[in-house]
Write the structure tokens for this entry.
Amino acid sequence: MNHQQSQQLFSEALQYFPGGVSSPVRAFRSVGGTPIFMESGKGCHITDVDGNTYIDFCCSWGPLILGHAPDVVLQKLYEAMQKGTSFGTPSAYELALGKLIVDNNRFIEKIRFVSSGTEAVMSAIRLARGYTQRDKILKFEGCYHGHADSLLVKAGSGLVTFGISSSAGVPQSVADSTIVVALNDEAAVRQAFAENPDIAAIIIEPIPANNGLLVQNRDYLAFLRQICNENGALLIFDEVISGFRVGFEGAAGYYDIAPDLVTYGKIIGGGLPVGAYGGSKTLMSYIAPDGPVYQAGTLSGNPMAMAAGIAQLSTCLSKGFYEQLEQKTAQWIANLNQHCESHGYPCYFMHIGSIFWIVFSQDHTAIRAAEQIDASSMQYFRTFYHALLERGVYLGPSGYEVGFVSAAHTTNDLVQAQQAIETALSVVFS
Ligand SMILES: Cc1ncc(COP(=O)(O)O)c(C=O)c1O
């Protein structure tokens, strides 16, 4: 493959943007090489500026559950766009998307639209603090919740620790109100509550998918529900990835566990910038203008973004949508694992619904916590990544990122991708 145009554009972009990009992981630092500049996408295929075409499993990091530029979304967008791009007033599109979600989701009685996942999480945390009149937040090592200050915090040493900021510029006083514990560890959560009666909320990705795919036991999530109840804290499910991905009700519905607040992003906007947070009427009545917790946005509920969301989510609601997506993914993953096993490769593919992750390890015990991931295995991913890219398959450029199968991936596409993956694996292990 020739990547000349991408290379040229990237060297120019380096002069204008930090790292040449608008979001760090796009810079290819963890796999090496030059980012590919994409020009167009349709279905599960994307084409770069040099004319190379790829089967895409990054899917814009999750939003594109129908694939690229689905006609249903384009039509609705075009309809909305012709009427105007933004009014800064309520709109019927916003109402329609809100109704679509609330009427089909047992866990949301009222919802507020924002413009990104980060904003959704930041606002839900403020609401939890405002409602409980407590300051501390408990989060888990290995979960990512966007880049709000209080969540850019990682574990210090010890079982239960106050966080240390994982980014320069986050005041220690902010990190001090975030407690970080390992996933899948009940004792650590119990200890955190014993030592801190002022925890406002636990926030978790119920399907942690930002540091590999760290699928939790249902019992563990039920335990979190229980301990929040016992301690007067709120349970926040950050469903920016899992929302509308593993089912219309996200992980809350998948596990049948009711969080107090849910945050959404990605799929909800049909490929446009949308986030949202929601919960019971009582909790949401704390949000301005009804209540004392302030939160606002110039482009919140933007009509074009709402229209794209309506088109995408209506399609997701069609009968059998999630079952088909899950079955297709499960079969593909089973085929890939069979191949790895028959060749004795020290790697395997994990999946839940249409989210998947490749682990370069012989150990097939379920990985549930970040510390179980062997950082040295990422060297295999680097080789795998470039071997795959050369064969026309695009993944997110980091071994800690998950991949997504969309409704647009046909059986043929998956077979083709499988062949490329098998060859790439033979390169890795040759
Ligand atoms: C679980 C989770 N929460 C929050 C965010 C932040 O969303 P955004 O990038 O839209 O700000 C992400 C982004 O990947 C995410 O995966």
User: Anything to note?
Assistant: The pocket of pyridoxal-5'-phosphate is lined by residues 61, 116-118, 121, 144-146, 205, 210, 238, 240-241, 265, 275 (CB under 6 Å). The longest strand covers residues 136-141.
